[in-house]
Backbone:
């Protein structure tokens, strides 16, 4: 079975532009989460979606938005890009929402965004 | 204060050594705890969950101390392949807004 797939893998944007990142979860997984990982730091939680509804939001500005589609794939949008948005954006899928017993998140390889 | 804090290291140890990492968390309502491993320029992968009673998986042992709000990871008989960044992960009730620590880097040398 395919794992979590993300696209694009690398992209370069300039300040003020907008970017859309895409994620396809593992088949059968209904929950998708987005994380931002800056070099040398751990992943920072941005959003979680489950059954097409936003279930959690991290401390990110409104320039960041996301959605989940009926097939459970997801998009992360970032508007008015800043230099500080340069990071690895990770998508993770899980079987369900609110499962404290396993909590396993399956990550994609990420989309590396560089803002110039 | 950060929600999850880890010693960034790096820890440089010889093969065969025993090494321990600690992680503290600030939210006493946290319910689920995990250690993830991240290799250089790769995605994080679950290493093990951490249970209140402590748990062991081969050379790896995880402990949880709710009273002091910290979790630990012990690696025995370190291998070269254990070189990675170890991420402490905490999740509140409900499972969303999973919080990752900044990670502890481990280098195991021959």
Residues:
């Amino acid at each position: 079975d395919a794992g979590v797939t993300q696209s694009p893998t690398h992209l370069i944007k300039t300040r003020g532009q907008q970017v859309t990142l895409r994620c396809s979860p593992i088949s059968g997984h209904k929950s998708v989460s987005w994380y931002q990982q800056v070099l040398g730091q751990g992943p920072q939680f941005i959003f979680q979606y489950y059954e097409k509804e936003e279930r959690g939001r991290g401390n990110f500005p409104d320039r960041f938005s996301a959605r989940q589609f009926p097939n459970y794939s997801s998009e992360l949008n970032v508007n008015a890009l800043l230099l500080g948005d340069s990071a690895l954006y990770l998508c993770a899928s899980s079987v369900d929402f609110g499962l404290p017993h396993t909590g396993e998140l399956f990550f994609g390889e990420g989309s590396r965004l560089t803002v110039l | 204060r950060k929600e999850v804090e880890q010693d960034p290291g790096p820890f440089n140890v010889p093969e065969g050594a025993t090494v321990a990492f600690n992680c503290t968390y600030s939210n006493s309502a946290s319910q689920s705890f995990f250690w993830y491993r991240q290799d250089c320029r790769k995605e994080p992968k679950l290493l093990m969950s951490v249970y209140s009673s402590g748990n062991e998986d081969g050379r790896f042992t995880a402990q949880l101390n709710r009273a002091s709000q910290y979790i630990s990871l012990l690696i025995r008989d370190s291998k070269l392949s254990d070189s990675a960044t170890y991420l402490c992960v905490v999740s509140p009730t409900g499972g969303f807004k999973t919080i990752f620590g900044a990670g502890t880097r481990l280098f195991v040398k021959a």
About this structure: The two ends of chain A are 37 Å apart (CA to CA).
